[in-house]
Amino acid sequence: MSASRAETCVVACAEAWRGDGEVLASPMGLIPSLGARLARLTFSPDLLLTDGEAMLVRPDGTVEGWLPYRRHLALVTGGRRHVMMGASQLDRYGNQNISCVGDWARPTRQLLGVRGAPVNTLNNPTSYWVPRHSPRVFTERVDMVCGVGNDRVPPGAVRFHRLRRVVSDLGVFDFATPDRSLRLASLHPGVTVERVREATGFALTIPDDVPRTREPTAAELTLIREVLDPDGARDREVTA
């Protein structure tokens, strides 16, 4: 079976939680949510999933436990959560903006607001999902810092700050560079290095040999298409 770009993105998001063990997965958005549920059904069976309120749930939505807010905060402050957030802007060091576009005192566009982004990047593994890779998102400078990037962390706090990966509709990125800036880790099938360069508003670190993002296995495709997203909502978010 041939996978769509959206299905490859689901798997790329799922891979963010590989090896995490028993941590709370906090995916924000459709593709990350499908990825977290796929990871739980396959290679990360110990992941904890929530309904977004106070219940722990299985990938099919069946309630399997109660997660009161006090316990949720204990997981967050103890580093037992891996969140995958969105980003309206993201710079080379992983500084994320979801609050406003333009000057903070007089923005041209109001977005979600800072919300919990600063705390999400404190003592929790953090990843990002960007459904439309463009220079407007991958920008040289964010208009407001919400999620904290690698260049803004005090030396004594570096060990508590863990930016894992960025998944976009073009590829997968990480921070495995000497200055912990963004690096192209893999290209989705059908995407070229030149296209990623053109869609990025700063100079990426690009290895000489960039691998292809892992495509879904036949079993994973069946889960995505028949169990997790039978209505095909994924292909409306990633249209390539």
From TrEMBL:
Residue ranges crossing the lipid bilayer per the database entry:
none
Which keywords appear in this protein's UniProt record, sorted alphabetically? Answer: Transferase
Which family is this sequence assigned to? Belongs to the 3-oxoacid CoA-transferase subunit B family.
Q: What is this protein called?
A: CoA-transferase
For molecular function, the Gene Ontology terms on record are: CoA-transferase activity
Write down the InterPro entries for this protein, in alphabetical order: CoA_trans_fam_I, NagB/RpiA_transferase-like
User: Upper taxonomic classification of the species?
Assistant: Bacteria, Bacillati, Actinomycetota, Actinomycetes, Kitasatosporales
> One short Pfam family name for this protein?
CoA_trans
Query: Which region is the signal sequence?
Result: none
